[in-house]
Design brief:
2 strands
Length: 338
């Protein structure tokens, strides 16, 4: 896939322009979005993402188009998991609803910046060390196991990192509108709003650890990795307000994501064997006994897994019936490893 520097510049410029527009059009004036507003903008960003994928398929071929769609679906599912974390963090800090948009917007921008750094690092590693696919594959299998079987109940807003922040920053007990700091009695204090943003930024960093290796398991094209992440994050703020009540019903989303991460981990390990250069594996020669998983199969598997997890969750929680998973919602959220 030939992506020229000018295409990169235009893509980044348009991305920045979208987020600037989002801030001035929707976030600058504190308010709680209506369901109608959230639905319209969510539909717009999803349609835009789909049209972009079609454009990649038409211009660069449907192999790359398929890689984009598989990556977008994976990143969107992981982003919904992010939303659950954001919900818990904002509830922990009791963020007023009219200020939640600002927190989400800043959190999404932090996520995009962190993922951009991880994307660049991942591309450099893949370019220079083909054996990094073994590392990515093993990491995803570990994260899949942890996601599927971890039953920790810790809250990201009250973990060791946030306790460290609280010890070293003077924090007010109440919000001062949407201000991040306030001067009282001649001293500068930080507000709970700033603590919330710090917590969400930390969570974003944790999520990037499995997000970027996962999509590099579907494509080696940095441009596809970047744009899939951008479109997965665009509209995430509106989606939060649109499906906020539905999030608590997606009780099998964590298990579904674990299956997807494990699948991509296996795919990466198979790909690593095909590119093998490690001298202690088959004498440094490629291992091609196991065929690589084609992108169309990856796309179908990811879409089917998300669909099954969603339908199973909604059926299980229909009529307000609870499951053991409902009684420990933070288990889905806890991505603080250790």
């Amino acid at each position: 896939m030939n992506v020229t520097p000018i295409v990169w510049v235009i893509t980044v410029a348009v991305t920045v322009a979208f987020f600037i527009y989002e801030f001035f059009a929707h976030v600058r004036r504190p308010h709680e979005p209506t369901i109608g507003e959230s639905a319209r903008w969510s539909a717009f960003y999803i349609a835009l993402a789909l049209l972009f994928g079609v454009g990649i398929g038409v211009v660069s071929g449907w192999t790359y188009g398929g890689e984009y769609f598989a990556g977008y679906l994976t990143e969107k599912a992981l982003s919904v998991d992010n939303l659950f974390v954001f919900l818990i963090v904002m509830a922990s800090f009791a963020v007023p609803k009219i200020y939640q948009q600002k927190v989400l917007m800043i959190g999404i921008v932090i996520a995009l910046i962190l993922r951009g750094i991880f994307i660049a690092l991942g591309a450099a590693l893949i370019e220079n060390f083909s054996s990094v696919f073994y590392l990515f594959g093993a990491l995803l299998l570990f994260l899949a196991y942890q996601q599927a079987f971890s039953h920790g109940g810790s809250n990201p807003a009250d973990g060791r990192f946030m306790r460290f922040v609280r010890r070293h920053l003077p924090v007010t007990n109440e919000y001062h509108a949407d201000r991040l700091t306030v001067r009282t009695d001649g001293r500068r204090w930080v507000t709970p709003m700033l603590l919330t943003i710090i917590a969400i930024g930390f969570v974003d960093l944790i999520f990037a650890v499995d997000s970027i290796p996962a999509i590099y398991g579907l494509t080696e094209e940095a441009y596809i990795v970047f744009t899939a992440n951008v479109f997965a994050l665009m509209g995430l703020r509106q989606l939060f307000f649109l499906i906020g009540g539905l999030l608590e019903r997606l009780v099998y989303l964590t298990q579904g994501l674990a299956v997807i991460l494990a699948f991509i981990g296996v795919k990466l390990l198979i790909h690593a064997l095909h590119k093998n250069e490690l001298p202690f594996i088959n004498g440094g020669e490629a291992v091609t006994v196991i065929p690589e998983i084609p992108i169309w199969m990856s796309l179908l598997f990811i879409a089917a897994t998300i669909a099954v997890a969603t339908v199973a969750s909604l059926v299980t929680t229909r009529g307000g019936r609870r499951t053991p998973i409902d009684d420990e919602p933070t288990a889905q959220v806890t991505r603080e490893r250790g």
